[in-house]
Amino acid sequence: MSAASNARKGRPDLEIVVFEAGEWVSYSACGIPYLVGGDVKEVDDLLVRTPRELRDRLHIDVRTQHRVTAVDVHERSVEVHADRKDRTFTLGFDELVIATGAKPFRPELPGIDAPWVRGVQTLVDANELLRHASDVSCREVVVVGGGYIGLEMAEAFVRWGATVTVLEAADHVMGSLDADFAERIHASLRGIGVDVRTNTGVLGFESRKGESNDRGSVTTEDGAIPADVVVLGMGVAPSSELADAAGLALGVKGAIVVDRQQRTSVDGVWAAGDCALSQHRVSGQPVHIALGTVANKQGRVAGINIAGGYATFPGVVGTAITKVCNTEVARTGLTEGEAAAAGFSAIATTTETSIRAGYLPDAGSMAVKLVAERGTGLLLGAQIVGDEGSAKRIDTIATALWSRLTVGDLIDLDLAYAPPFSSVWDPVQTAARKAERALAAVE
Amino acid sequence: MSAASNARKGRPDLEIVVFEAGEWVSYSACGIPYLVGGDVKEVDDLLVRTPRELRDRLHIDVRTQHRVTAVDVHERSVEVHADRKDRTFTLGFDELVIATGAKPFRPELPGIDAPWVRGVQTLVDANELLRHASDVSCREVVVVGGGYIGLEMAEAFVRWGATVTVLEAADHVMGSLDADFAERIHASLRGIGVDVRTNTGVLGFESRKGESNDRGSVTTEDGAIPADVVVLGMGVAPSSELADAAGLALGVKGAIVVDRQQRTSVDGVWAAGDCALSQHRVSGQPVHIALGTVANKQGRVAGINIAGGYATFPGVVGTAITKVCNTEVARTGLTEGEAAAAGFSAIATTTETSIRAGYLPDAGSMAVKLVAERGTGLLLGAQIVGDEGSAKRIDTIATALWSRLTVGDLIDLDLAYAPPFSSVWDPVQTAARKAERALAAVE
Hints:
homodimer
């Protein structure tokens, strides 16, 4: 929808048709855990724009429950199946944007297609998860995968009084953090009663016999865990089958290869969002990062270019943020592990400071880990775990990474200080000072 | 103390003597309003390090109540008056750091030296203001000058139940903001009952006759306002008399001229903190910015260089932040007015957005004003006024200014998003998108 609305802004004369396989367009999938947890009242609150608004205000012809089944890049047409009328038709195009998004990763395990095993992606999922959460007979919830969405969902179900178990195949949750920082999240989760089981792979899902097939158990190497509902939080995979079948080049993890203008390998065909690749500005490598921020930016760039303007998407630095209970978590750039994998020789330092002036009540505390390149002092990444008011400071470091600043530059930045907001050296600068000493020590 | 402790870290063998005219060293002057307002329990909480700690841990010979009365840069010595013993002596130096700070601006008005007219600078002021605030007979407080400290003190006294009047000679408080943004603060102040009188110059201060000379009234063109205590919040002036008498070059507002290593115009004499100038990275001009952040950074640089290391202070971008009641305020770079004065042709746009995802309860709102150069789109400055969680986002823009980013770059930044922290386009990016449209419109 971002591509469509930006194309509209640039070219009032374009005929713009949007096909959506599901029932909804333009909604916040990231809001689903907050809907299930009760902060958001109803599914409709997550809608940014209704198809009617898009039609009336932006003159975009949005057709929901229309599934594009094939793309013919030579004939310049798409084949569409209209679900309600159950008929198939073909529509020609001058320019095509593929924005098929991503789907929750579903490993091939026995029973994974049971109706009580759900991803967190569409508003159908949202409704279904909310129905489970608010059902008094829903007492036992298993979350498979301890990523952002998995942990947000764990907290949402705890709020309803359910017993929640998180199963994580790796040795720590939050795979996008280094283990030492992820450990801090374990403590928070356990604090609200979540049973976090690391190094625990799932073998399958078994529906309960003799019942309505509406619940079952999760089989692990350590035995079965009963579950009224299972939430899949194992990450997502790009939905690129349509693009693949059309002959478009795919890259890392099967995501669609795009250039900085969001052009695919085929002339006049564009891709944006969770189905497409991005360039990582720190590692210099293509990455698949399925986040709403990236999707919106890529869509905007595609739309502007389609309308004859010029815009580029210069890449990501891998920023992400969440909140688990009252612990805030953020990361940007490369972890220690990722820096090594990308070929950097790096140092990493961790500092713990108060968030505000230490002499104020409830100053709170936060830990900052900085990763920097040996020799140059180039910032490579950061992780933050802390109390309220800590995590959004990752933006300072994300901006610094974007500009290729060094640890020394971070010390010099003119960041805002007053006692209710920071100590006189902002926590990220205190972190930089420690990193600078570590860099000097290894020179 | 920052210069002294950094010099110590680099050179364990140096003999380091610190002369301080007052009783305290190494304290947070910025914390005084929070002490007076009751958030901080006692004056000692504002001490970072005691003279004893500095002596014992860092082997720095701190001598309080020692006033340096003259510097002889040819003889390389200082003349010192020891208040307690009431004697004067001379001490030679190899390297001298002048860190005499700033003093509250006191216009030459009749009665301004009355004991009930106080600045907010030292811990003596802090004790005296706290004594007034907690005195049940202190009912009427006048704050002269509506800058950061003045408004923070106004709020502190309101908390004690006093009637507070703020007198501001200009047409709006917060002179470091444009008028349209300062207006938003007026509303907050009035909301807690502060009587804000703009365009109101002070003519003098009159002590009440027949009483203990411990209160009086403030004379203005619109009549006299009774006052149990007057707080001077008219900004500060560098304390550079000693440097001037020693023949050091002074610049804007009489602050000491320093190079990027914090060297003054005289070899072996350094200056740092509120008495020294800084370079403004956006305007390219020397500025006097008396803030703890700048002072700490400059002191660090001087200390490292004195110890034979190499460090530079590459300047400021003019970042500042505060909180008035529950309204947060921040600014960085140049205002519209400052941009014009610095010779830029600039556009300015204001956006109002929710701080978090709009569908969450208590999402809060914030206004962002961006100032950018026509043609290049170079970011020149920003102002933020908003609810809790808004103002510290100025750091993203401060970092962008530091790196000389454009409005287009700000749109592209990979900032952190999750519903409890932001909308999918961070408020500063929504502001950048509006600024981009304004730039396109004037091209």
